[in-house]
Design a protein that fits this description.
PSI_PsaA/B_sf, Photosystem II CP47 chlorophyll apoprotein, plastid
Length: about 55
Amino acid sequence: HASFALLFFFGHIWHGARTLFRDVFAGIDPDLDAQVEFGAFQKLGDPTTRRQVV
C-alpha cells in the first residue's frame, strides 16, 4: 500500500509540474517576449481549432 501511495503521490506531482512548466519541457526560450497561447493547436479533429500557418 505504501509503495502504491508513493507512486500515486509523486505521479500527481510529476503531472502537475509538467502542466505548470509545459513551456520549459517543450524547450521554449524563456526570454521570448511574444505571448504564446498554449493549447491553440492541440485539439485534433476539432473544426473550431485554428490552423497553424506554415
